[in-house]
Hints:
Layout: E1 7-8, H1 16-28, E2 34-39, E3 47-54, E4 63-69, H2 82-97, E5 110-114, E6 119-123, E7 129-130, H3 132-136, H4 140-161, H5 165-175, H6 188-197, H7 204-218, E8 224-227, E9 236-238, E10 243-245, E11 252-255, H8 257-260, H9 278-292, H10 302-316
Antiparallel strand pairs: 1-2, 2-3, 3-4, 4-6, 5-6, 7-9, 8-11, 9-10
Helix pairs in contact: 2-5, 4-9, 7-10
Amino acid sequence: MMESNKFEAPxxxxxxxxxxxxxxxxxxxxxxxxxxxxxxxxxxxxxxLLRCRVNPVDGLPSSFILKKVETETYDxxxxxxxxxxxxxxxxxxxxxxxxxxxxxxxxxxFYGADHHLGFIILEDVKHRDRLVEPLLGNDIAEAEWAxxxxxxxxxxxxxxxxGKATAFEGLYKTIAxxxxxxxxxxxxxKHQSRLESLGIQFDSNCLRDLEAIAETVSSPGEFLAxxxxxxxxxxxxxxxxxxxxxxxxxxxxxxxxxDAAYGRMMFPSCWCSNxxxxxxxxxxxxxYRAVLVQNCPIAEEDRVFETALVNTFGFCIH
Length: 318
C-alpha cells in the first residue's frame, strides 16, 4: 500500500467513511473516528484504496486501509459480474485467511466489509517494500533472499489451507449466496481451434497433454488448497521480517502448484515479468516443497510432485 502525502477530508468520501467508522467501532469495541484520508490510487483505477487515519486509542492501530471496488454501475446483486466476483473473492479470501489458526500471517488483518457500498477494511501493513524492488534492484543476495522467502510464503499458505475447502465455500456462500467461486478449467476444443487457426496441427499428442493438464487442475486431490492465482511481485509486501500477500481478487481453492509454478512461469500476471536463473527457480521449488510436505506428505514423492508441477505449469501458459 503505497505512501502518499495527499490528505483529504473524510467528508469527501462519505458515506464510505461513516460506514467504515461504524464497522471499526463495532469490531474493535471502541469509538473510532476517521480524522484524515490519503488516497493511494489514482482516479480511474479499478479499485479505490484509502488510508484512513483514526483517533488514537491505546493498543489499537492508528490507520487502516479501505479498499473499494470501482465500477460505473455497482450492483451487489450482480454477484457473478466480473467486478463483483473480484470484490467477493477479495472479501472472502481476506476474511477466510484470518480464520486460520496458523502462526503465519498470510495477509493483512481483516476488520470488516460493507456489502452495499462494496468495500473491505484491512490492516495497514507497515512494509519496507514489495517483492518488486529487490527483483529490480542491484543486490543479488537480497533478491535471492526475497525469492526464497516468497516460496516459503506460498508453501505455508498452501500447507495451512489444505483440507479447508469446505470452510471456505461455506463462508463464500454466507457472504455471496448467489455467487460461484472460481474453478480452474481448460476448454480443450477452444485450444484446438486456436492452435489450428495459427497453422499448428492438433495431433493426438497435443490432445493427451491437454487432457493430462485438465485432469490435474480439475482434480487436485491432496494438493487442493487456497491459491492466490495472481501471486505477482506487486502483490507481495516485504515487512523486513516476513512477506505478506495482498489482493485476493483471483483467489480460490485449486491445485496448490498453480501458485508454485509462478517463478518458473516468470510471474506472467505482473508488469515486471522476467526470467529467473534456473538455479534460483529450482531452489524456490525445493523451498516451497519442503514447507508444503508438512501437511501434504504425498509431495515428498518425486514422480507425483514433478508430474503435477509440469501439468500446472502447462495450465499457467494455456
